[in-house]
Amino acid sequence: MKLIEAANYEEMSQKAAEIIIAQVKEKPDAVLGLATGSTMLGTYKQLVEDHRQNGTSYRNVRTVNLDEYIGLSPDHPNSYRYYMNQHLFSHIDIPLSQTYLPNGVSDDVEAECQRYEQLIENLGGIDLQLLGIGRNGHIGFNEPGTSFSTPTHVVELAPSTRQANARFFPSLEDVPHQAITMGIATILKSRHILLLAAGTAKAPIMAKLFEGTVTIDMPASVLHTHPNVTVIADQEALSLVPDEKRKVHAK
Ligand SMILES: O=P(O)(O)OC[C@H]1O[C@](O)(CO)[C@@H](O)[C@@H]1O
């Protein structure tokens, strides 16, 4: 696991965007694994700006998102499809037909999970997977206790996750109880994983991550078992990570 330290959120976003742009330039038909949440907003903004100014093209890129709420249709303002269209897809030249998210309103969510897993395989796997980290260590919506061998599956969201995400909804009651998420096994098949973290709310979980213990109680800890993980974090998120741990992982 390589750590790139950033001074602040803006710098984290810029460094993340540089890695994504480099991936797309190296492989114009790359498969990008994308994530949602507040952490990613700055990165998507940078990608949009770069597309406008430098013309980086996404015409042949394919994208697969980590997760989607069950019960929210693509045009629901809190669905992750809506988020992706609003913050990224509608501002770059990617055809929407090449952007994929799990279908949260499928009649058969179990079959949808299998379809999504197969889709990722049919695309040739993920070249670069972007990840945020939940305050309880979740990646995608893989909550603590999730087996590391799970493929795409239906999850019951932890009360703390619903609480953390309630800020985007009119009230806590409106936050869905379930989601479809790529599993940890799905995420680990990605050829390169880029985890982003910013802000003091993430400091305790980042300290735990860099302690290095791999346990299903902390889903992100599985990233220590992957050969190609880059973490970009700002100083607030790293504020509880001791200097010696930072040095060990410094790029
Ligand atoms: O970036 P945020 O909003 O802190 O969220 C962190 C993670 O939690 C989720 O929003 C799910 O709760 C992920 O999509 C995200 O990567």
Automatic annotation (TrEMBL):
Transmembrane segments: none annotated. One of its GO terms (molecular function) is glucosamine-6-phosphate deaminase activity. Residues 10-226 form the Glucosamine/galactosamine-6-phosphate isomerase domain. Catalyzes the reversible isomerization-deamination of glucosamine 6-phosphate (GlcN6P) to form fructose 6-phosphate (Fru6P) and ammonium ion. HAMAP family: GlcN6P_deamin. Belongs to the glucosamine/galactosamine-6-phosphate isomerase family. NagB subfamily. This is Glucosamine-6-phosphate deaminase. It comes from Parageobacillus caldoxylosilyticus NBRC 107762.
